[in-house]
Amino acid sequence: MNGGRWGRRLLVGAALVAALTGCADQPPTPPPAAPVPVAAPEPSTDAIGPHGPTVSSDPAALAREIDTAQATIADPARSPGQVAAAARTAQVAYEELAFHPERLAPVLAALPPGPADVTNRIVTAGRDLLAMAKGTPGDELPAWRIAEPLPPDRLRALYAEAEQRFGVPWHVLAAVNLVESRMGRIASHSEAGARGPMQFMPSTWASYGLGGDVYDPHDAILGAANYLQANGADTATGVDRALRRYNNDPRYVRAVRAYADVMASDERAFLAFHAWEVYFRTTSGRVHLPVGYDEPRAIRADEYLARTGAPR
Asked: Which helix (H) or strand (E) holds 279?
């Protein structure tokens, strides 16, 4: 991986509304089914916590938290656990700034120029993705299953294989994977709409999936590279056009390109993207959906938090 300070050169963002999943000629996802009955309370096993890390609301303190997180991620001497924890703190910090843009300017003013530029890029990308979401937070959590993603080295190898075969830059594929499914963490229980970690509509997959399994990360990444290459993403001037075919919204294109450029600048940023968790904004606040979350139907957030014994 490249040396240098991850946060000093660009940085990282992601789909702050955890599943925009609007890709590969996808129509809007239908609303979830009715909530399921709530089971008896059981102790929470969410090690990260029901709402994720807490970050400061004070601009100067938040700037220090962001700067420290970026430095940790950039340091090759740090353990994977330390890097992941720093990335998750940064994730929540950027999300807070994206949801509350009035807080951004004083945070940027408190950061050195490099981290300030990085932070501005991330928050702007997050705002683009938020603008694509419709409506305000509701009281339900989605009918999703949250799975452990492939380890970063294995995913990186799959992107490289797809790049070698189709000429689509690995970091573009990684950014699409991040925005579409949090690099494979998010799976929907619905058979309607887009499917798999790269979120393909069945008709598009039939044309570009190379006969593979849309739910298999290897096959899905190759299929996405095939689709993007067919629309020009194997050329420097064609990436934006290809991404527009993947999701016909300029905000999506800008966000994906921002994340891709971050990883192209410094591969350690990929480790941070990979560590990002799944959060869902509700009237009960930001709710962490950990690995093992598996709800076949929409469920009220307050009932889910009560069932898992988490504070609300």
From this structure: strand 279-282
